[in-house]
Each structure stands twice: as C-alpha cells, then as structure tokens.
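Homework help board

Subject: predicted structure for assignment chain

Our instructor gave us this sequence and asked us to write out the predicted structure in token form, then describe one feature. I got the tokens but I'm not sure how to describe them. Can anyone check?
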Amino acid sequence: MLFRSEDPVTAASRGTKEIALAVFATTATILAVFIPVGFTTGLIGQMFKQFALTVAIAVSVSLFVAFTVDPMLSARLVKPRSEHDAPLWGPFRLWKRFLDSLDESYRGLLGFALRHKLLVFGAATLAFFGSIGAVALSGSEFFPKPDRGQFIVSVMLPPGSSLDHTVEVVEGLEGILRADPDVLLVYSTVGVNEEARKASIRVVAKDKSERPRTLPEITSDFRKKFAAVPGITYAFGEAGFIENDSELRQAPIVVNVRGPDFTKLADVAGKVKDIVGRTPGTTDLDTSFSPGLPELRLRMDRDRAAELGVSAIAAGAALRSAVVGDTPTRYREGERDYPVRVRLRAEDRDALGVLQSLPLLSRAGPVPLRQVATVERASGPATIEREARQRQITVTAGVLGRSLGEVVGEIQEQIDKMGLPDGYTVKFGGEAERMQESVEAFGLALVLAVIFIYVVLASQFESFVHPVTIMVSLPLAMVGAFVGLFLTGQALGMSSFIGVILLMGLVTKNAILLVDRTNQHREEDGMGVEEALLEAGPVRLRPILMTSATIVLGMLPTALGDGPGSEFRSPMATAVIGGVITSTVLTLVVVPVVYVVLDKITLRGRAERRARLAEAAAK
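My token output:
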C-alpha cells in the first residue's frame, strides 16, 4: 500500500482489511484440525493432547497479534518511499530485482498452466500416486526407536533349571556385558514372574554422543556373543522407563495363537514360529510354549478309589504336601518371621516308591497311594496361558534392519497361506497391534480434519465449491511428506502421522491467500477468472514464499537435530518440511487450474459465461 502513495496509517488499515479473511480462515483451519486432536481419548490423546492444545492456543494468540500489534507497528515504524528517495543499498536492490523477475517468471508459468490444464492435472496426479509408492518402500512402524542408552535382555533357561543355576549363568552374561567399553551399568533380576529359570538384565550404556556405535549395533554385537553361551534363550528389547516383568510381551512382534486343544495348538504355534523365523528382518525369536518341565502325574484308578472312598482331590493333596510341602506354622526370631515348610526329604521326593507308599484315609482305614493311583514321571509346559476363554501360545520376535510394517505384512501373508484348523486363530499383539490402532485413530483424525476444514472454509468464503479448490493443496502436501520420509530413510509412524496432521492446518494457507485475492479482483475490479488469477498470483507469491520459508527454516533444526529424543521429533519435522515445500510449489500451479475448472459450476462462473456469450453474439 505504501507504494501507492498512501500514508502509513491508511496503508496499514487497508492492508489488514485486505488480508483479514485469509488470515482468519487460515487460523480457523488450524484450530479445526488441532482442537479435536486435543480432546481425543486413548493413547493418541495421551501422547498429543498437550501438543495440540499448545498449537491451538498459540495460533489464537497470533491471530490477535496479527490484527492489532502488527498493523500498529507497521503504521509507526514503516516509512513510505517515494521516487525522490535514495536508491536501495546494493544487495537489497539486487534482491528486489530477483523478486521482480520471480514475479514475472511465475506469471508466465501460471499462464502456461492455465493453457495446459490437462498436463497440470496429469503431473499432479502422477506425483501423488508416486508418493504413495514411496510410502510402501519406506515402511511403517509404531514409534521410532529412541536411543536412550538403555536396553533389556530377557534370559530364559531350560525348564527345571534351579535358581542357583540361573544366577550362575546370569553372572557369566553380566561379565560379557561389563567387558564392553560402551557399557556403564549392568544389573539383573533373577526369578522373573516367580520362575527360577527366567532373568532380566538391564544395561545402561554411555550417552550416544560419547560412543561410536549406535544402540542397535551394540545389541547386535552382544547377540553374537550370547549365541556362544549354551542352553539359554535370550531376547533384546527396549528398556522401559520403569521396571516391568513382562518384557517378553513388549516385543515388536507378538503373535498370539489360540485354540481349544493344547497338543494341536502347540503344533500350529510351531508352524507360526517357523514362519516368523524365516521372515527376513526378524531376530530374538521366542515362544511362551516351553515343554520339558519335569512333573509328577497322578493317574487314578477310579473304580478302586470309589470302592475305598478315596477322592482324587485327597490323593492329589497328599502328593502335593509330600513334594511341595505345607506351611503349618511360622518361626519368629526377633522382629522377623520365617515360614516353616514341612515336606519329604529331597531324596524321598525323587523316589517313586516312597511317593506311592504315601498313606491315604479310606473307609477301611489308611491305605497306600499305590492302591488307588499310579504316580509317574512326565514333562509338560512350563506355563499354560489363557486368553478369551481359550488356550494360547505366544510367539515373539524383534525387528532388525527393516520396518515393523514390512515384516508384519510378510508374516501375515504367510500365515494366510498356511491355513488354520477350525477353532484356531492367529492374532497380532504388541507393537504391531498398537500400530494398527494408531493408524485407525489417525485415519479418523485425518477424516475429521478434512471435514472441519471444509466446513470452516465454506462458511468463510460463502461457497461450497471454492473450499474444494483450496483443499486440493492437502493431497499435494502428502507428496512432499511421503517423499521426504523416503529420502531420509524414515518409516511412517506415530510421529510422522502428527506431522501430517499438522500439515492439514498449515498448507491450506497458500491456497487461501491465492483464492481470496482472486475473488477480490473479480468482485472489486470486475476481472474475468483467468485475468484475476494472473493478477492475484504474482501479488500473493511473496507472502506465500515468506510464510513457507519461515515454516521450513523453523523446522529444519528439529529435522537435523541429533540430541536426546531426536528419533521421535525428526520424522515429524521431515514430514512438515517436505509437505510445505511440495504444497507451495504445486499449489501455485495446480490450485489456479482447479479454480478455473470448478468455477464453471458456480453461479458466478455461469453468469460470467452467459455474459461473455451474449457479448460475443452482440458483436
């Protein structure tokens, strides 16, 4: 406005009115995206509630500043220039020439796009579907794995291993871990879940800035060393913020196999385990089914027992008391109590003859156990799991060198080909299940964001058609987001999803600025649609480039950062940067073409066409 020889106060007032609709519509779209996310329940709400509400509040405050403080400062600090003023300083003069030439170049490009609409549509469509292919190559994950310098090793010994033997093996593993120069602290828990053969080792390494290897490289080296230790099963996993006895269930890949018959269930679970083990990218393969636990089985002679009046419950209780023992009393010494367990001696507990001679009460008086039952040695599973009223065996594995989505997809494909017996099911749990839930939640959030954006734009522009024109920038932003993740080698996960949601509110501002200015030229100056676009495009080019450059430069340190937590923040920033760049470039060309095409179905567009036809007929 200052270049139109207006005083600063008038210029600030007119300039604010000119962009008022565009600024308010842009702010409203961002609020329409993030306020629903802020009130989302479940894991998504817990993770991003603070982020969404912070963005919403900050944008609302910036709207107030844009309509009050900025015009005031512009009126007071910006001085008008006239033709009598001294020329601009050299670098500024060169920069102004560059911007002027950029305006003219864009005007020429825009004219070309309006003359070749089909070519522009084809190029935009090809770019969009090409970016979807980039997503398939990038893979997907639940959460990026942060390098916090800690990891957990879950160790399992064969069934029947004593607590002392487990402690001895774990001490040897601790020695291997402590010998590594990048390891600071090692501490272990033996007897996880009250099972003497299980142990958990937490390892604390140096900060990632102080060691040459990444955490996956360190764990890969330890896997090779642990493979030389006989008789153990181990799995490396991410360390939680608190100690948790269920590290096995926190594995990236958890496959739950369920069915009624345990023998057939074990066979199906074995086939699933083979499929998971053959899939490239899996590591630390394990299963909850551990046969071989020594046990004593009591086979009742029911007819003889019924004749003597001995129940199976009484026989089992007598055998349990002899082997496991009872605690009839406690011994107190000072302030401490010690349970007193009564059972047979160790050598008698292992002697079947002694066990079969245990006395039982009957109608005829005491009788030995052998008269009503047979005691035999056998082996069975260490644990029997149940889920949804069915027996369950869990197969777990880690992921190394590939994304979680790629590995799970291949496993699911092989399981579908395997064919399951009637009554048996296979369901993914762990991170794979949570990843699927997060995709569904973000898909819903994305749909709601699009609906709310349309409603806001329709109310602001008083049109049902031109909001569609503006929202063309949304899929164009996806192009850059997906390609950016692919080029940087990052998978599509929860952090990049929130970047995509953020893009929904950001990228519409370019199209809003362009469409709003075009409508002003048509209403105030009576221009035709293409003439208005050719006039509005170069005028809005600089604000569009400035706001886009601000977003990109603001996100660049986050995308390139390598500090603590950068693994989570970097994909979000990468998605935003890529989306803003492609949306800016493609919006400047594609949105005007879409505007021209869709304007033909609006009342104004049809009225202008009839007027042009009538004028041509009159001539």
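Reply (TA_rk): Your tokens look well-formed. For the description, you could write something like this. Confidence is low (pLDDT under 50) at residues 244-249. That's the kind of observation they're looking for.
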